[in-house]
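I'll show a typical protein example:
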Amino acid sequence: MQRLPAFMRPKASNYGHVIKISEKGKVIVDLQDPSGAYPLTTGVLETADKLYISSLSAPHVAVLNKANLQ
């Protein structure tokens, strides 16, 4: 697909996705945002009570309280 001229390539849709994987490869947490409200996630910093999520295009860092994810 990348070899096609830009005008012929399908337009990608925004979709946020964060996965936490154990050392043995087991998925521990799978957070998804199909609305794409916070797209192009590039990294996550986890503290005892929060997740700080970075993005290539968002104008800010997202902060999620881990207590609200249960």
